[in-house]
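Backbone-to-sequence.
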């Protein structure tokens, strides 16, 4: 059970309920219940609780710039000593080979960085086999996209929260969500605390 100061199951729907001191109960890869923490805790006393304190728990984000980020940009290995920002032009932009192995490794690093911003879905389409494999194995695939349009790893840098959020948290749905630190201007101000994918904590910011 994931507990947070506020749970927004469907931020894109202004009529959807939200829960102060709410929780999401997860069984395996699926959501088993969403609601006030006290009620869920009473119904499921044996559930292990991960308390995110003042965090805001919402559906994860969708990055619509996946094709550019994963096929048109290169994500450096920290050992290369050239920073961690995407380099336009892919491996060729650094004067290196654009073989499938290097492109796949770059895509995996890019996907890992997206998780750190609360992204649980990334849009294609993807032409390279190595990139398609990396996305499929990550579990972050999503339909649609912005084609070759350039964009950042953090969708909240350019999109309003209600446009960036992906799906809703409902019983029987896949347990993909993010927890954001509280901020006066919403999730963008506070940053991402943790990303949960298929019921597993896959990324937590320090």
């Amino acid at each position: 059970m994931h507990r947070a100061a506020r749970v927004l199951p469907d931020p894109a729907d202004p009529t959807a309920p939200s829960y102060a001191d709410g929780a999401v109960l997860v069984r395996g890869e699926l959501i088993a219940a969403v609601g006030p923490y006290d009620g869920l805790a009473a119904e499921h006393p044996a559930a292990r609780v991960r308390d995110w304190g003042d965090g805001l728990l919402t559906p994860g984000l969708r990055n619509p710039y996946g094709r550019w980020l994963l096929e048109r940009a290169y994500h450096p290995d920290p050992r290369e000593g050239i920073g961690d920002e995407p380099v336009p032009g892919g491996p060729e932009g650094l004067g290196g080979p654009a073989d499938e192995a290097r492109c796949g490794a770059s895509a995996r690093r890019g996907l890992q960085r997206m998780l750190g911003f609360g992204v649980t879905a990334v849009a294609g389409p993807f032409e390279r086999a190595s990139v398609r494999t990396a996305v499929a194995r990550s579990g972050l695939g999503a339909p649609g996209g912005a084609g070759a349009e350039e964009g950042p790893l953090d969708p909240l840098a350019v999109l309003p929260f209600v446009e960036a959020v992906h799906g809703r948290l409902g019983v029987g749905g896949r347990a993909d969500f993010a927890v954001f630190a509280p901020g006066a201007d919403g999730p963008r101000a506070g940053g991402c605390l943790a990303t949960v994918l298929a019921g597993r904590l896959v990324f937590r910011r320090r």
